[in-house]
Design goal:
Oligomer: homodimer
Largest sheet of chain A: 4 strands, antiparallel
Structural class of chain A: alpha+beta
Radius of gyration of chain A: 18 Å
Distance between the termini of chain A: 23 Å
Number of helices of chain A: 8
Shape of chain A: globular
Strand content of chain A: 15-25%
Strand order of the largest sheet of chain A: 2-6-4-5
Number of strands of chain A: 11
Largest interface: A-B, 44 and 44 residues
Chain lengths: 235, 235
DNA sequence: CGTCTAATTGAGTTTGGTCAAATGGAGTGG
DNA sequence: CCACTCCATTTGACCAAACTCAATTAGACG
């Protein structure tokens, strides 16, 4: 069940069997959320952290005028709110962007476990720092790149992140987002997302239909996006 | 020397005397960086984390075409690269935006200290999560708010953060950034920063000359910025 | 007084937004 | 099997916030 999480933790350093065993013992039985459901509500103070096992989740901030910004996307193997172990309350809601299967780690058990295994504590800390590094990359992408580059960058990033947990291969992966949802990620309008996607298709770089992405020319897409994967710490 | 850091850590929970003592012992003698100097170079892998004692530092990503994005501002009491304790290499450079006095915590000493004091480890983790929460807020601000709102939001945030460490009072504080540097923070052009500042002055909300900011109407400024300080975790 | 940097102004341009309508495709019920 | 509905995608026309480029003004400092 924790295979994908362990693969991510391993980017910090190998997870020892007793650490893994400890983790497995504290996780609660899986639960399911349907696409569109809210997994955790904004401003709540969860007593457990949620790990995605399958599907796709997003952190979404909704504003007064109804506009929304998705500040993070979480794939299987990602904790969506590990930070709530340390910081409360949550400053955003977590939504299921596709049907999700999740499990949770109660904070109290997590505290005991991390006090027993300081290295595991740092590996979990590492995961939250990876989130922060992605936030910074998105700040650059949204602040300083045009719409075409942003879209290209997002696709490069999701390709690598999903490949890292065995959910992308040969530039092919599932990304079941509507164009309106992509607009909330990239800070664009739905209309413009549509035009940009058409442009990427016209350029022969990407095919994206029915939630399935296929990157046709990864080298050129990465060049266009000025994509440097260092920040993902995949080693 | 660590008074401001301790005040920040205290937002997680009180720092015990033995924890504070441990911290004080590992910090190296202060060093000074002049405005404009690079404190840490992008892609380097520091063996110590840098704490700002005085001045103002920023994390800056410079792009191929010369455009820059500042992804974080750090005031006295902030670690600028605590994440480098866990993650390497750095995906951005740290620059002194004003003359800075800094001290550092060697990673090896930090490791021993945090293994002895798990609660202190979590308090430091908390600091990096606070950075991440600010990143998310900036994503919303840059992605979904217009230039006037962004500027207003930045001023509200810096006012609270500086007040928290005793460097702002009554809406007055030092923010010695040029308009070009502000542009790199807010993802605007220098020219537009200038126009927006004039507009805020004209509205009677803010005075900002010679690096000194004075917020004249905090309530209205916060309303304009749709500023909700929850994310800063100041309790 | 001259120099250098930062701030300011003006004119013209552009990227991406808004609004509204049309098209397409999947699922449903008769 | 077809009509209908619902939602996502697509298209077109127009608009506006912010950008670029270039020049001017204002301060600070030696």
């Amino acid at each position: 069940m924790l295979e994908r999480l362990v693969r991510k933790l391993a980017h910090y350093g190998p997870v020892r069997p007793d650490e893994l065993d400890g983790l497995e013992r504290i996780m609660t039985p899986p639960r399911v959320f349907a696409r569109g459901e809210e997994i955790i509500r904004q401003f709540s103070s969860p007593r457990e952290s949620t790990l995605v096992l399958a599907g796709l989740a997003g952190r979404r901030v909704t504003m007064e005028d109804g506009a929304a910004q998705v500040t993070a996307l979480h794939t299987p193997g990602d904790f969506v709110d590990l930070h709530s172990f340390v910081v409360a309350p949550l400053d955003h809601s977590i939504v299921a962007l596709a049907d999700c299967r999740v499990t949770t780690a109660p904070h109290e058990a997590l505290r005991l476990l991390t006090e027993r295994f300081p290295r595991l504590a740092r590996a979990l800390w590492f995961l939250t720092l990876l989130d922060a590094a992605i936030h910074r990359q998105w700040l650059v992408m949204i602040g300083r790149r045009d719409a075409l580059e942003r879209m290209a960058h997002l696709l490069c990033e999701m390709n690598l992140r999903l490949a890292d947990v065995g959910l992308a291969a040969g530039g092919r992966f599932e990304l079941p987002l509507t164009q309106a949802e992509v607009a909330d990620v990239l800070s664009l309008s739905t209309v413009h997302v549509n035009r940009v996607l058409q442009e990427l298709r016209r350029m022969g770089l990407v095919a994206w239909t029915q939630g399935r992405v296929e990157i046709l020319d990864g080298r050129e897409l990465a060049r266009l996006a000025q994509f440097d994967p260092t920040y993902l710490q995949l080693n």
